Amino acid sequence: MVDQEQVKNRITVEIYGHSYKMVGTESTGHMRLVASIVDDKMKEIHIHNPSLDSSKLAVLTAVNTVHELLKLKEQVEQLEEELKKLKG
Question: Which domain of life is it from (predicted)?
Fold first, then answer.
């Protein structure tokens, strides 16, 4: 029997006009969603910063995405603390 977590899915996605091969254990639907969100974010940032080349745009997209991730982690920690207080 094959361990499901070891199965690698391979797909090609398009992000900001370029094709990329993605390999991972997540579903292809999940990987396509990730690529779509990155593509949308790059296009959104490009609208506000049209002079950026694609590599600077990619870095700015990564910085914004990590910022959002850190804010979400902070919110989760706050909610977990509130939940502990309610249970306690």
Answer: Bacteria
